[in-house]
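# step 3/5: fold
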Amino acid sequence: MVWTVVLGVAALVALLTRELVTVVLLTLVWLLPGLVMQVAGMVAPRQCHAFEVWWRARRIARAVRAAWPGLSRALDLGEVAYRTVKADDGARSKVEHWVPAQVWVDASPVDAVLTIRVPRGLSSADIRAKADAIGADLGAVAVHDVPAGPGLVALRCIFVDVLATARAWPAAVGVVAPVVGRGEDGSPVCHDWRTPTHMAVQGSTRSGKSVLSYALLGSLAGREDVAVVGVDPSGLLLGPWQDLGRFPGLIACGTADMGGAVDVLGHLVDVMDDRVRRLRASGADKIDVFTVDDPLLVVVVEELPGARRAVKDQGGTKLLAAFDSQLGRLVAEGAKVGVRVLVLGQRLSAASIDTDSRSNFSAAITLRVDSSEALRMLHSPDVAARFGSECGDWSPGVGVVTLPGAGTRRFRADLTSYEQYRAAVRLSSPADAMLGLPVSVHAPALRMVDDLEDAAGGAA
């Protein structure tokens, strides 16, 4: 910044004194860094990007370290120490001075993790109580407590509001571990369908739930070792998959015949039971190789609360009991034999998912909802306490995601359209039949233990 101002003033002086050659030379020097970066970006884009990332992280780290002494004094995060001062006449005296709490800064282009050693006279709780004040003084848009060792407190201060702007869905198809959004620290949010767990997604009307489901399912297009099936009262989400004609009897769209929806779940339970029998006969404890004959089954139940109401309206409590029983069995027994259940709803209360089944949905996403109770039911009381005050004001696509091994964090789903989703599904290669019937097209086997694709790289 200083160098730019000096060059600008020198060029202005040269222009006023009509030293045109000097003006031209100063202008070239002024533009030289930008020209160098442009050329470097064309010749070595990866290296140039890495340098830019490093430079931005360095600037954030330097700014935090420079602000820390004053911040620690203002918030009383340190201790008073004494040092001996010798006067000119040889007399010695003790002078008190402020010693800030020791801090380590690990920065990225969008955030910084401050690891603070708890000073004498304070506790970890004292420092955590001042987390918001620390973030405000540093200019952070959000502050989160992260795990740290004994005697330490780690705070993640986020300086760039990644969630303020939606990113376009990369439309990466044929990907089993799709990137569907970004966390508030800029890191990718990826759901790996190979993970033996089920997923639940909830959000009120216009919260972005449909857009998120397009990315979750559209990325599976083109894979003959994955079958997207299930029940969809609206017919919009599973309609494109039904149009492929690859899954006869395994997709029920619309509400005209909810008995047919129960039959679909019953057929899927039969497939699951057959796999369990084969698993026992093989002496293995799980199925981890899937082909076009035995695909990974992604069972979608769109708008679960509405589907249950429609089932009850048409067939009474007996048909509803059959619906709940079939879905409950898929959730409880299906993960080890390649069944992944995805349920969606405006609010997935205990009436929609019972307590026993809820524990199997270790992947959960909540977009905008009307109360913190919805967060508590689907995630945990801790998540409700952290985000309950803001969950009713989230923009479309903004919410919290809980994934196995990754905890819970805020994120924003990538933006896509229904037209993009339908176009992606059309890429699926048609086969004559599936699930044990003869087929004419065979895809490579999907092995759960293989690292088939780098999710972040595949969506770049």
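# step 4/5: annotate
The radius of gyration is 29 Å.
# step 5/5: archive (pending)
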